[in-house]
TrEMBL record:
<keyword id="KW-0378">Hydrolase</keyword>
<dbReference type="InterPro" id="IPR000073">
    <property type="entry name" value="AB_hydrolase_1"/>
</dbReference>
<dbReference type="InterPro" id="IPR050266">
    <property type="entry name" value="AB_hydrolase_sf"/>
</dbReference>
<dbReference type="GO" id="GO:0016787">
    <property type="term" value="F:hydrolase activity"/>
</dbReference>
<dbReference type="Pfam" id="PF00561">
    <property type="entry name" value="Abhydrolase_1"/>
</dbReference>
<dbReference type="GO" id="GO:0016020">
    <property type="term" value="C:membrane"/>
</dbReference>
<protein>
    <recommendedName>
        <fullName>AB hydrolase-1 domain-containing protein</fullName>
    </recommendedName>
</protein>
<feature type="domain" description="AB hydrolase-1">
    <location>
        <begin position="26"/>
        <end position="142"/>
    </location>
</feature>
<dbReference type="InterPro" id="IPR029058">
    <property type="entry name" value="AB_hydrolase_fold"/>
</dbReference>
Amino acid sequence: MTGYRRISVPADGGDLTVGLWGDGAPVLLAVHGITASHLAWAAVAGRLGGAGTLAAVDLRGRGGSAELPGPYGMARHAADCVAVLDALGVPSTVVSGHSMGGFVALVLADLYPERVSRLVLVDGGPPLPPPPGDTPEEQLRTALGAAAQRLTMRFADRAAYHDFWKRHPAFRTWSATIESYVDYDLTGVAPELRSRVSPEAMRQDYADLSFGEAPAGAWRRLRHPAVFLRAERGMFDEPVALYAAPEPIARRIPLRTVPGTNHYTIVLDDPGATEVAAALADPGAN
């Protein structure tokens, strides 16, 4: 899918940044994870075959939307997604969410059911068991590891940031798409470069997706057609998947485990990106 560009969409407190690939209808909406950006969807966009448009939003507190104020949380992000659909003139569409984006997608469908025709949940959305830790902060550090740690770190140059990501166990390969995704997250002035992600946005969002009523209730009340694409391996490429017990999900909606993927590569690289693109574009599921 060609024709990548970025637009600004007015939202409460400022402007959201939205990445667009392709042109024309249908316009599909994609929502990224807790410390990611719209460029997490670049590989998926490249495998959609040029039919229609993929619109991927930078959630407030991330990427080009980093300066938008809180409060954060799944319902706030869902309202921002509605602002994006309004700006693009899209009454209803297929919505895909990866990781935390899956929780946002569920809440969007629950609070604004007429705006969603179908959901593609990618290794996120259904409830997860809490990770080890006595407090939400400890659980967050356990769950996100280096992804959370990097928000407090400073980097001398882009090469140092690349090296940080290349040491992440989930990134077994490096590509131009992944490098662009990593570079987009970087802001500031050398030698004090840092991630754009707001630590406060990450904290509030993690607490909401883990303990909030909005995402839990949205899963209980799910009434839209939906599919769940499950990464075979975990957040840090562990052999145990993030969703280690898929059976309760499979009893609710169709579930497919994507071989050869972990929590990151299921959208950032093949074979995951091709599987997600196919699920988004599936005309028989609309």
